[in-house]
Amino acid sequence: MRTLANVTELRTTPAIRLEGVGQIYGAAGDTVVAVEDVSFDVEPGKFVVLVGPSGCGKSSLLMMMAGLRHPSGGRILVEGKPIDEPDPDRVGVVFQEASLFPWLTAEQNVEFPLSLKRTLPKTERLARARERLDLVGLAGFEARYPHELSGGMKQRVSIARGLAQDPPVLLMDEPFAALDEQTRMTMGDELLRIWAETKKTVVFVTHSLTEAVYLADEVMVMSARPGRIIDRIKVDLPRPRTYEMLGGEIFGRLRDRIWRQIRTAA
Ligand SMILES: Nc1ncnc2c1ncn2[C@@H]1O[C@H](COP(=O)(O)OP(=O)(O)OP(=O)(O)O)[C@@H](O)[C@H]1O
């Protein structure tokens, strides 16, 4: 039962909490400290973007938040509970490469994670997959195979798949990096629309500072390896974000500040 106490607790529980998280790769004598002592909270419904010099540990952080890797130190909580393994009910993931199964249709690709749990009947799973494809603007493309879809459409399918189980958190690792500039901008707007509709908490990794400022409520800047959070920049631009804002003074100031941080950190 939802009492006032647990509703209040739910409101105050961060969607994601990192406490002193580290990641060390390799074995004795040959180790790489990729991430060191990272702590932060992400409030529910926020759009956070992670930037930093190449190799600073952005993907490593995301993999740990997704439960795909265990931290070497510290701990990660999603909705107040540790994440020790992938849990698509709590965390959806979208990678740079669409990584769709080529032998499955768009609808079957989205249905796939739902079929693993076998808790929903097939008709329900397909209805949910269709609903997600509709959400990402792919109604009418359910029966297409990945090779029949453009790069942007494949990433839309990936987003639909990441949202298949309606997780509160969506992690995105450079999801638009392989797309041409125009498609990338359109996808940014599409993602913001989906985010506004679904109210997910998003953590998004990118190398593009323009994309970072355009999308984020907050940009977290990481240092060069070992990756630590060296700056957290609130983006106070109004929403919806528009193309015109890109040339504005606030936008330029924020992008400059991030760039200066990255340049000194690299
Ligand atoms: N499985 C692994 N084994 C050993 N070292 C690894 C492994 N994965 C990552 N690393 C190293 O850890 C560091 C951080 O890698 P990671 O991919 O997390 O950084 P990144 O910031 O996402 O990089 P990029 O910006 O280039 O995508 C890098 O030096 C990388 O070489």
UniProtKB/TrEMBL annotation:
Keyword set, alphabetical order: ATP-binding, Nucleotide-binding, Transport
Keyword hit for Ubl conjugation: no
One function term, GO molecular function aspect: ATP hydrolysis activity
Origin: domain of life: Bacteria
InterPro entries per record: AAA+_ATPase, ABC_transporter-like_ATP-bd, ABC_transporter-like_CS, ABC_transporter_ATP-bind, P-loop_NTPase
Species assigned in the record: Enterovirga rhinocerotis
Protein's name according to its UniProt entry: NitT/TauT family transport system ATP-binding protein
Domain named ABC transporter: residues: 16-249
